């Protein structure tokens, strides 16, 4: 996922829209029994801000699916994350240009990590399962004698 600043300059413009679909090589989810549905959609705009600098902003849309953390029911959730970064040559504190190209991979993966929920829930009010009898409390009353 590279954006070439030289190509943008050659077009006579100072900005360019982009769209990529991405399938990472590494696992980006830390939630047990949850995965990302690929591809991940990335769209945005890059604006030249200097001879060797640019500002890139956009939106990442991805879907996670797997077991609800509370009740273990299969579910999925679509997440939209925003990103906005200043890119400069030899930037030690942020994202850098390499040969006048912006590699969006690290920016996208960082945005996904930051916006990944801690748990996957089938609904915000999921009641989970009874720890004693194991019934899904969203579907039926508890059958044990604990009064839940």
Summarize the structure.
The chain has 148 residues and is mainly beta. It contains 2 helices and 7 strands, in the order βαββββββα.
Structural write-up:
This protein has one domain (2-115). It has helices spanning 5-10, 105-115, and strands at 2-4, 15-22, 34-50, 53-67, 74-89, 95-97, 101-103. By secondary structure, it is mainly β. The model has no long low-confidence stretch (mean pLDDT 89). A hairpin with a 6-residue loop joins β4 and β5 (74-89). Helix content is 11%, strand content 44%. The termini are far apart.
Report the radius of gyration as a whole number of Å. 21 Å
Low-confidence stretches: none
**End-to-end Cα distance:** 52 Å
Shape label:
elongated
- Arithmetic mean pLDDT: 89
How much strand? 35-45%
Helix tally? Answer: 2
| Structural class estimated from helices and strands | mainly beta
Topology (SSEs and partners):
Blueprint: E1 2-4, H1 5-10, E2 15-22, E3 34-50, E4 53-67, E5 74-89, E6 95-97, E7 101-103, H2 105-115
Parallel strand pairs: 5-6
Antiparallel strand pairs: 1-7, 2-3, 3-4, 4-5
Supply the key terms.
single chain, 148 residues, mainly beta, five-stranded mixed beta sheet, two-stranded antiparallel ribbon
